[in-house]
Specification:
The structure is a single chain. This protein is 76% helix and 0% strand. The protein is mainly α and 532 residues long. Among the domains are: 3-28 and 392-511, no CATH class; 49-135, no CATH class; 152-278, Butyryl-CoA Dehydrogenase, subunit A, domain 3 (Up-down Bundle).
Length: 532
Amino acid sequence: MSLPFILDVTIGLAFIYLILSLLASEIQELITTILQWRAVHLKKSIEILIAGDVSKSDDNNVLQLVNDLYNHPLIQSVNQEAKGFLTTLPRKFIWLLSYIPVMLSLTGEKRKKSIFGYVKNGQETTNKLKHSAPSYIPAETFATTLMDTLGLPTLVDKLTESRLINFADEQLHEIQNVLLRLQERLDNSDDHICQFLTHTLTEFNQIVEGDFRAIIANFQKDKADLYTTINRMAKSLDRYISSFEAEMPEHELINKSLQRLKFLRQDTFDDIEQTICLKALRPNINEIVQLINVGSEVQQEFVNEFKNKDSEAYQIFQDLIQRLEYLRQKLPPSVVGNMAILARRAQMKAKSTEEGINILRREIEQTFNNSMERASGVYKRNAKGVALLIGFAIAIIANADTLHIVNRLSKDTAIRTAIVNNAGEIVQTNSTDTKENLRRLRDETDQVLTTTALPIGWNDTNLDQQLGNRKKFIPFTKYLTMAAGWFISGIAISMGAPFWFDLLSKIVNVRNSGKKPAASTHEQETEGRSTY
């Protein structure tokens, strides 16, 4: 048996596998599109990531949180559903088919309501269920959406506002105490001193407190950062102390009060960054995440910071507490634990709250990417299992018996020659970027099938050659041989069209003694000159 003969048989077998693999790929892609496997698998993978465990991924809180993520504008913008009656009519049929396996599952009702999330309209309504979802979500989009859904940036802002208001109240209270004690001790002094004390206290209440409130209002409107806000408070206090010093009468107690005011100003505002750190005005990202864990030590310490129910800080704090209580009810414990771990890692690398948030966002992105890599591996294994089932089904339906195909190619010269010639032409016309041009390859192989009879199918010719004389008793071994041939074909078909085309290209090149060698530099220059 010569090498060219073996190569011809191998080319014929690989070409038949290629044709059947193209059909299998088309069927698998159709099933994937109808059942929206990629989108469903992605959402399920996110649920597992959020839950931290496959067994907990169907918990109501997990599904609720993931639905909220899918309801976020950033993720909604990734998924674009078609509009219009004629456009959505075929899609509605696909949506119906995609829900059939979900409704037949053990958790059908729960999964039906949460497979792709829903659009909130005051309450969850069945007519607002979404029928599709993105098959791919960028890691940056997921991280931003998760942090926004958890409200971490809002927690940072609200906690900073509350502490800043609390800080301002403390400073105003200390200065006011100095003035009130001075007024008490000089209550029986002459009219000039009493007028000064009344004026300076009124000036403090009207001007300094007003300045502090306006400064905080600008901070809440994002017109100034924290450092600038504290610096403006210091300047407002400087103006008041200068006015106090310029107008005060000569008196030992008044002078001591002035020194006390200067000391308070110096101790609090000379080193603004130190004050921000000591007063925890700029909360770190780990502290923010710990606030989500209602009942933790950090959360209890936070509650103890705000006791004055009449203060503005307490009102903002109450809004924050309501948000934390909502998160406590909605968040799965795994989310709090995972976010706490990521927050500690982010805090070790961060120098500021803003940097901590950015690092935490990158940590979430990395975690999401790692999870999606594992999910991609699971999807590929599942897809491989489906490809095997489709391959076995095609092998049986097409009666693609590998053992019979090899026997037929080795004996029938006409079929072998026709298949080899067609395979060579297809390889030459699709020599580059074949994986991206499977549709063109499929069209060309369809043309081959109209002119070449392949040794497959349930026609009488194939059956007679496989089983012998069917009018007589057929040995059971014949059926076993046929089943073995189907099994081999099924595995081969599941390998995929790109695999068989690449292998076919290599075998054809070997059969043709390899590719034509590249011309030498001298020959190229000569050919180039001859074209002018």
